[in-house]
Specification:
Pfam families: Cas12f1-like_TNB, HTH_OrfB_IS605, OrfB_IS605. This protein is of the alpha+beta class and 402 residues long. The chain is built from ten helices and 16 strands.
Length: 402
């Protein structure tokens, strides 16, 4: 059955000099309002043990605009400023609910420059988008069409470190489930092979960062030689940012194609619940793990499975997928990372990654069938609903033989 979901469609655009100046002022005002509101909330919380509501923050913003020092806040659209206060309110709600750490200040250099416009602050007419305080529409490169008859409810404008401008349009879209199939696949994430499938297929890791490492190192060396605060240093910084953007774009494109293929071909997808944050503490593998982008891979699988009517099963991180023999169910005591092929006591020789993918699939199907150890999983921001985390604490009990 088709279902309505909210999807963000991101496009690159090229602002005029006037539009760029207006947006840059808006970005600065958004960051200032967010930081001042956070400062007031921090003072009230640590000084008086009092929580400041969104309504109080909004009243503060009105007072700031009336002062001589901050009168310039009234020169930009008020909607992005109000949205910044709403985002801060959400951050504190998550903090008090123990879902996130304490909110941090936005940095001019490190934070993403962005501004969010709701329906009252932009005009959408005949496929052209005009933001508040601007006389003309944005010059958007429509790399893909919006859904038929869709109108954006929220528009987010951003500028990345490489100086590229993007606009994200949030629209209602009708998602039709993919044709049903009986296929199921287990996925073992790795470094040499980005993913190994239970079918025996290994998809090589493109290693996007390694391919551009020499170019990145050269750009960083040139940046280090420039005087701080100079125009040449800013130009060199942009070059470094463009290399990073190239790496990120290629990585994201590859992951989108891979996850779309996996979701289209399989009704059930089983993966491991990897703690990437802890794995990054390994100094020897941290760079390769970051380049593999396992967290982004999982995120894409989560919302695409929800969109297209597929089932995503996540097994417990402590499940011994690599050490569990898929033929007899015996769990091997130790299996160092450098051992890629091993032989079980029953005489079966296993490829480490293929065996792991197959045992992951078997454990996921067993957990999905009997409902053992199901508990809520983190909510997906793209689907608006919780996925399911399948706990399989016992290595052999209830695991079907392969």
């Amino acid at each position: 059955m088709a279902r309505q979901v909210k999807r963000a469609f991101r496009y690159r655009f090229y602002p005029t000099s006037e539009q760029a100046a207006e947006l840059s002022r808006t970005f600065g005002c958004v960051r200032l309002v967010y930081n001042k509101a956070l400062q007031e909330r921090t003072r009230a919380w640590y000084g008086e043990q009092r929580r400041v509501s969104y309504v109080e923050s909004s009243a503060m913003l009105t007072g700031w605009k009336k002062t001589e020092e901050l009168a310039f806040l009234g020169e930009v659209s008020c909607v992005p400023l109000q949205q910044a206060l709403r985002h801060l309110q959400t951050a504190f709600t998550n903090f008090f609910a123990k879902r996130a750490t304490y909110p941090r200040y936005k940095s001019r250099k490190k934070s993403r420059a962005s501004a969010e416009y709701t329906r009252s602050a932009f005009t959408w007419r005949d496929g052209e988008l005009t933001l508040a305080k601007m006389s003309g529409p944005l010059d958007i490169r429509w790399s893909r069409p919006l859904p038929q008859g869709a109108e954006p409810s929220t528009v987010t404008v951003s500028r990345d470190a490489a100086g590229r401008w993007f606009v994200s349009l949030l629209c209602e879209d009708t998602m039709v489930p993919a044709p049903a199939t009986t296929n199921a696949v287990g996925i073992d994430a790795g470094i040499t092979s980005l993913v190994t499938l239970s079918t025996g297929e290994k998809i090589a890791n493109p290693r996007h960062e390694r391919r551009d490492r020499a170019r990145l190192a050269r750009a960083q060396r040139q940046l280090s030689r420039k005087a701080k605060g100079s125009n040449n240093r800013e130009k060199a910084r942009r070059k470094v940012a463009r290399v990073h953007a190239r790496i990120a774009d290629r990585r994201r494109d590859f992951l989108h194609k891979l996850t779309t293929r996996l979701v289209r071909e399989n009704q059930t997808v089983v993966i491991e619940d990897l703690t990437v944050r802890n794995l990054l503490k390994n100094g020897r593998l941290a760079r390769a793990i970051s380049d593999a982008a396992w967290t982004e891979l999982r995120s894409m699988l989560e919302y695409k499975c929800a969109w297209y009517g597929r089932e995503l099963v996540v097994i417990d991180r402590f499940f011994p997928s690599s050490k569990l023999c898929g033929a007899c169910g015996t769990v091997r005591g130790k299996l160092p990372l450098n051992v890629r092929v091993w032989t079980c006591e029953c005489g079966t020789t296993h490829d480490r990654d293929v065996n792991a993918a197959r045992t992951i699939l078997a454990a996921g199907l067993a957990a999905a069938a009997c409902g053992d150890g199901v508990r809520p999983q983190r909510e997906s921001s793209r689907t608006g609903r919780s996925s399911v985390k399948q706990e399989t604490q016992r290595a052999t009990a209830g695991t079907p033989r392969l």
